[in-house]
């Protein structure tokens, strides 16, 4: 109806069409306020209602316990690589699991603030699996154990959470946020950049247990980078990313209307299965991740031939399937199938790939 393509981007990514329609309908005059949310003071009553509802809906959707704070922080996902160690490294020691590009970035950033112990890694097989985290060597003075729960570039996800031996678990859920149910109390802190599964880029949602929010941080820690600053001000210490918060709120309501996170998980399983089944039976294409650790959100695959991979990317784009090129660091192809990608999109892509296969084998 709008001439939209099936956009398989890893992020910013598709948003649900009914949400975009609602946003479009409100863009000139938000519910009789006489202005767009883009033009609205964050200190206005009408905006306060938006942010309050957004937080309340997320709490409902995920079942976030009362002793956790929900923060909306700018700086995207990347700022959290720094904020986590700045705020949580009390003894100056943290354990990280290395599963791919985004955990490597987190490790590099944390090393600026303290000692980082890489307690498990899948580097030996090019990050195509998630290492066994059932018996990690975690020092007594470790402040936390950090994971990237879904590696966007490598396409892996955890099948069970690490045994942290009583230490706090910190998780980067950026590329799987709200794709399935999550037991928040298993974590000390969850954070997610929102531009994959939720809304526009430029913001992270941080869910942090209250007792981990410290007021004894070193003086040089920038005000904006203390979780306490955001917790004490209801994410309104300065002008927040009002627009992103508003759009995320729309998506939270949409997910509740769709039946919540269990329903989304079922849909995501069925949707990813369509592509994985094809890859497993194809003579031309194959998935690059060990079956057990395959992500439902990011599906990397290849023909095994660089030139042919590039040809497939060009052919899919010409046919209306956009952004299937793998990340520049790994190449090949990748289909991201977040919450908003309809199953029909994946079915149509598989149809196209089967035809391509028939013509090229
Ligand atoms: N973590 C993960 C898992 C990601 O996929 C990304 C972005 N692709 C980031 C962190 C960084 O997010 P941002 O670009 O918003 O800084």
From TrEMBL:
Pfam families: Aminotran_5. It is an enzyme of class 2 (transferase). Binds 1 pyridoxal phosphate per subunit. Pathway: Amino-acid biosynthesis; L-serine biosynthesis; L-serine from 3-phospho-D-glycerate: step 2/3. One of its GO terms (molecular function) is O-phospho-L-serine:2-oxoglutarate aminotransferase activity. It catalyses: 4-(phosphooxy)-L-threonine + 2-oxoglutarate = (R)-3-hydroxy-2-oxo-4-phosphooxybutanoate + L-glutamate; O-phospho-L-serine + 2-oxoglutarate = 3-phosphooxypyruvate + L-glutamate. Keywords: Amino-acid biosynthesis, Aminotransferase, Cytoplasm, Pyridoxal phosphate, Serine biosynthesis, Transferase. L-glutamate binds at residue 43. Its EC number is 2.6.1.52. Residues 6-349 form the Aminotransferase class V domain. Its cofactor is pyridoxal 5'-phosphate. Pyridoxal 5'-phosphate binds at residues 77-78, 102, 152, 172, 195, 238-239. Catalyzes the reversible conversion of 3-phosphohydroxypyruvate to phosphoserine and of 3-hydroxy-2-oxo-4-phosphonooxybutanoate to phosphohydroxythreonine. NCBIfam families: PRK05355.1, serC_1. Belongs to the class-V pyridoxal-phosphate-dependent aminotransferase family. SerC subfamily. HAMAP family: SerC_aminotrans_5. Homodimer. This is Phosphoserine aminotransferase. The gene is serC.
């Amino acid at each position: 109806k709008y001439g939209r393509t099936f956009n398989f981007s890893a992020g910013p990514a598709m948003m649900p069409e009914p949400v975009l329609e609602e946003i479009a309908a409100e863009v000139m005059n938000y519910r009789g306020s006489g202005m767009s949310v883009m033009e609205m003071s964050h200190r206005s009553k009408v905006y306060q209602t938006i942010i309050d509802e957004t937080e309340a809906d997320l709490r409902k959707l995920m079942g976030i316990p009362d002793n956790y704070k929900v923060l909306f922080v700018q700086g995207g996902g990347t700022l959290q690589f720094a904020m986590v160690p700045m705020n949580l490294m009390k003894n100056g020691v943290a354990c990280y699991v290395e599963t791919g590009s985004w955990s490597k970035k987190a490790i590099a950033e944390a090393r600026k603030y303290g000692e980082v112990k890489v307690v498990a890694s899948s580097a030996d097989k090019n990050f195509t699996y998630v290492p066994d985290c059932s018996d990690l060597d975690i020092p007594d003075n470790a402040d936390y154990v950090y994971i990237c729960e879904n590696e966007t570039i490598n396409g892996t996800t955890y099948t069970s959470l690490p045994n942290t031996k009583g230490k706090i678990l910190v998780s980067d859920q950026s590329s799987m946020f709200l794709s399935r149910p999550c037991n928040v109390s298993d974590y000390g802190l969850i954070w997610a950049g929102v531009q994959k599964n939720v809304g526009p880029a430029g913001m992270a949602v941080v869910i942090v247990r209250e007792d981990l929010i410290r007021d004894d941080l070193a003086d040089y820690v920038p005000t904006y980078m203390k979780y306490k600053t955001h917790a004490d001000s209801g994410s309104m210490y300065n002008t927040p990313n009002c627009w992103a918060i508003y759009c995320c709120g729309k998506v939270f309501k949409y997910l509740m209307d769709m039946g919540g996170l269990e329903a989304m998980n079922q849909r995501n399983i069925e949707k990813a299965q369509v592509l994985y089944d094809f890859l497993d039976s194809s003579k031309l294409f194959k998935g690059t991740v060990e079956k057990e650790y395959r992500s439902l959100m990011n599906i990397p695959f290849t023909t095994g031939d660089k030139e042919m991979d590039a040809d497939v990317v060009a052919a899919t784009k010409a046919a209306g399937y956009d952004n299937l090129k793998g990340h520049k660091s790994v190449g090949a192809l990748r289909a991201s199938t977040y919450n908003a990608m309809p199953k029909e999109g994946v079915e149509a892509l598989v149809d196209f790939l089967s035809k391509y296969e028939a013509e090229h084998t």
